[in-house]
Each structure stands twice: as C-alpha cells, then as structure tokens.
C-alpha cells in the first residue's frame, strides 16, 4: 500500500487536483484493460468535483463510455430524492457525460436494504466476472470522510466494520437512525486506488486522527485505509489539513504516520 497526502491552498484547487488524479487513474486503466471501474462517493463534498469532471478539459480527457459506474454507498431513498448519491451523480456527471445506461450500476434502493445489498454484490461480481471468494478490485474508489471519521457508510461502532466476507451490506447506523448500503472493508481494501477528498475546517480533527492517530478502525473507520492493498491518495484543502502535525507537500512527498504502521 502506498499512501500519499496532497494539501491544496483552496477547496477549488483540491477539486482540480482530485479531477486530475481521477483522469490519470482512469486513463491508465482503460489503456491497460480497455475498460475501468469507478465507485463514486456521495455527500456534499464531491458535487464540485463531479461538476468539474463534466466540464472541459476533463469531459474529453477520458473515454467515459468505457467506465463502469458504481457507488461506494447509498442512502435508503429513491433515486430522485435530494439525498440520493445516485441523483448527485446523475445531475452533475451523467447529465453532461451521458454514459451508456448499461454501464451505470445504481444501487436499487427501492428494494429491501438487505436484498439491495445482495443484488448489488451480484452485479459487481457479474461486471468484474469475479466469483467468490475472490474480491473484485476497483480501479478507483472515491471516498469522502465524515467529521466522525466514517468512510462510505462505515460509521464508528457499526456492524459493517466487522464484515470480512461480503462485498456490500445493509448497515444499521444508529447515529442516523437509518440503514445505509455500503461497500465493506474487504472490497475497499482490495481497490487498486482509493481517492479521499476532504475539505473544510470541520473535518480537520478527523483528518488528523485518520492520518496521525493510533490505529482504531472501530472508533475511526478511515483507519481501514491503512490496510488498503493499493494506492491511497488523500486530497485535502488547507482548512481540512489545518490540524495535521506532519508536513505534507502539494505532491504528497511526506508519508503520513499511517504509512509507518
Ligand atoms: C454519504 C457519503 C459519505 C460522505 C461523508 C462526508 O453517502 O454521505 O458517501 O461517506 O463521504 O459523509 O460527507 P460530506 O461530503 O457531505 O461532508
């Protein structure tokens, strides 16, 4: 596993850095295998990133029709609901890039959450042509991080943190009084690349803990990324990085303590 941390002065610059990294990773994957697999993040942070990718020069920088589009988690709402992670991508990315519908793999939230998780896992295995017990390796999984250190919908103290076999589960989140659909630690760990985009002052304590705190994934789920098999790239704006003790350059020249085990 390689972990790099890039700190940008502004949120806008962090978004550009993230867009550049996504284009680089997806282009390399398409060149190598003829297609690529991308799992999108939800929440508020990715919106400007998705809008950026849908604009020049990014909109013509990737053969977007060769991307298999997935989501690393989803809320239990209809696809047209304002809180839907699918809707976020549909109205920012797909409205402009218009990828083939057959390559857009929405989590079927109209189903019972457990059924939706099983169906999504089967879809992932079918697209990757990878049967159990092997774990499909996403070319890129995009993540944000909550102020509590959650990633995808792996929240502190929730059952999904312990999942070691399934790829996707319905995770009860008492903190939100809801059940979320989420990639599991094994699926995250197997990714060739994970990009974590975190911006804003309110995330600074969690960023410090995630990169420099003692390993404790139950308390701080982002610590799971220290067990990733592929490359992990943290892209932060100055505000989110403001409580870090280490010195992380624009190009991620420093390795965070997380990488020192
Ligand atoms: C979601 C996301 C989640 C998100 C964090 C940060 O469905 O909410 O996948 O993991 O990345 O909650 O959310 P913000 O970007 O809104 O701060």
- CATH fold-level name of the domain at 27-56 and 65-197: Rossmann fold
Mean pLDDT: 95
Low-pLDDT sequence parts: 251-261
Distance between the termini: 11 Å
Task: Kindly provide the radius of gyration, computed on alpha-carbon positions and rounded to a whole number of angstroms.
Answer: 17 Å
CATH architecture of the domain at 27-56 and 65-197: 3-Layer(aba) Sandwich
Ligand names: 6-phosphogluconic acid
**Helix coverage percent:** 25-40%
SSE succession? EHEHEEHHEEEHEHE
Category by helix and strand content: alpha/beta
- Largest beta sheet, briefly? 6 strands, parallel
- How many beta-strand segments? 9
| CATH C-level of the domain at 27-56 and 65-197 | Alpha Beta
Strands of the largest sheet, in order across it?
A: 1-9-8-5-2-3
**Number of helices in the DSSP assignment:** 6
Q: Which short descriptors sum up this protein?
A:
three-stranded antiparallel β-sheet; binds 6-phosphogluconic acid; Rossmann fold; 6 helices; alpha/beta; 261 residues; disordered C terminus; single chain
Structural commentary:
This protein is 29% helix and 18% strand. It has 261 residues and is an alpha/beta fold. A six-stranded parallel sheet has the order 1-9-8-5-2-3, with helices on one face. Strands 4-7-6 form a three-stranded antiparallel sheet. The chain has a domain of 163 residues: 3-Layer(aba) Sandwich (Rossmann fold), CATH 3.40.50. It starts with a strand and ends in a 24-residue tail after the last strand. Helix 1 packs across helix 2 and helix 2 packs parallel to helix 3. The protein binds 6-phosphogluconic acid. The site of 6-phosphogluconic acid has 14 residues, from loops.
